[in-house]
């Protein structure tokens, strides 16, 4: 009975006990559906939402989360992982805090540094490197302090020194170049102590001795003096007026400073008022007088002489009253008569004859008693008076005609009373007046001409009122101005020239300032600027002393780290 009861109880328990659906797989979600029963097909979700893990499931243990490996085998990246995005690879920044090196990174070995090349391939600079500023290139000083060389620098070969050629100031100013002094000029002296020579130095000469000597011109322009020269006293002028003698008794002798000895004809002193005598001057005897012969050897005139007028020749007149005969007179035989022929068949006359009056003509009298005309009468046209041509075709004569004497030719005077012209006469063009040339071909003189005295030469004033130039004058070029050399050869002074007071040499403390607080700057009069590096020592063993170009000495505690790690922000 008891056994049956136990069995019944067991059956009742089984009937009401929950079914266990666990298949012992941690990777599935096991459950029981009241309709279909146990369900084993739903996988377990192991995603932990972390990109830095690989999620998986072990049937024995369940979900597992292993860290993802982000190593990209590149030493130039910093590998990491972000839960949201996964692996990260940040580039490594290679910094060695030196401006004299270049940083690089190799994926196999990582960061490395190499020294940069500061060579600018310029032989005229000194190349270096500052760990803070980087490459430095300072120009080298090629000055050899010798003014006799031209100092320069060639980027390929470095400093060069070419001999300096001093400016040539001509043969009269020889020049040499003296080291540490420069060009030195000397002046050639040409004095020969002879008052009869003029000494001049030819600056253009190519001879060894450029001096030239010319005889002094002692001509004083006075033809009445004899000009001589003595080497000790110079020019002498002796009066020679008494050497002027007349050539005969009809002249008197004088001396003109312009032309010298000359004679004046005094024959006019032999003339008197009685015209019945002719007066003359004999070179041997002086004044003479001769009775005038008034015989004109003309039988047709009565010859006589009157003291006031001289010879008179009165024509013999016709005393007959018969006008129909023509009175004639032959100069040899005397008067005679012929019948008047009144009809001359000449258009220049109309003729009739009456005993009382003779031939009556309306005759054109063509004789104008003017020796400046040629008188004629054309039987058809009547009287013609042709002007006499007195032109001798010489522009240097004045041609005229006198009705009494006929043509007259007189030489013209071309003297314009101007000492600044040379007067001449050309038979084709007449008078000419060429300006005289006063140019002495010396650029150091000004020439002008005075109409009364002629050429005047005055020295050119080359003074430019500038204390910074040396004023000179060269005959071939005129005024020249050479710059004054104010260089005192002291590199510690600033040399310049002021046109009022000349050279100034002023010390200048700023000349050597290299704008670097880590150097002590000063100037030496022999070698110039000196920039010595200062020593920074605060005598404190707990600090590191250093210097920055802007600011000077500074110190940093040893605890703060090496100087290279400092960040200078200027």
Structural key phrases:
single chain; 570 residues; mainly beta; two-stranded antiparallel ribbon; two-stranded antiparallel sheet; 1 helix; 3% helix; disordered C terminus
Fold and architecture overview:
The radius of gyration is 70 Å and the shape is elongated. Among the domains are: 22-86, no CATH class; 437-508, no CATH class; 515-570, no CATH class. It contains one helix and 44 strands. A two-stranded antiparallel sheet has the order 1-2. The protein has a two-stranded antiparallel ribbon with strand order 3-4. Strands 5-6 form a two-stranded antiparallel ribbon. With 570 residues, the chain is mainly β.
What is shown here, in short?
The protein is built from one helix and 44 strands. The chain has 570 residues and is an all-beta fold.
The end-to-end span amounts to: 109 Å
Strand content: 35-45%
Question: Mean of residue pLDDT?
Answer: 83
Q: Rounded to an integer, what's the Rg over CA atoms?
A: 70 Å
For the largest beta-sheet, the strand count, sense and barrel status come to: 2 strands, antiparallel
How many helices does DSSP assign? 1
Quickly give the structural class: mainly beta
| CA-based shape | elongated
Helical content band = under 10%
Low-confidence residue ranges: 12-16, 565-570
**Neighbour order of strands in the largest sheet:** 1-2
Tally of extended strands? 44
Please give the structural blueprint:
Layout: H1 2-16, E1 28-33, E2 37-43, E3 53-58, E4 62-67, E5 77-82, E6 86-91, E7 101-106, E8 110-115, E9 125-130, E10 134-139, E11 149-154, E12 158-163, E13 175-178, E14 182-185, E15 197-201, E16 211-215, E17 225-230, E18 234-239, E19 251-256, E20 260-265, E21 277-282, E22 286-291, E23 301-306, E24 310-315, E25 325-330, E26 334-339, E27 351-354, E28 358-361, E29 373-378, E30 382-387, E31 397-402, E32 406-411, E33 421-426, E34 430-435, E35 445-450, E36 454-459, E37 469-474, E38 478-483, E39 493-498, E40 502-507, E41 519-524, E42 528-533, E43 543-548, E44 552-557
Antiparallel strand pairs: 1-2, 3-4, 5-6, 7-8, 9-10, 11-12, 13-14, 15-16, 17-18, 19-20, 21-22, 23-24, 25-26, 27-28, 29-30, 31-32, 33-34, 35-36, 37-38, 39-40, 41-42, 43-44
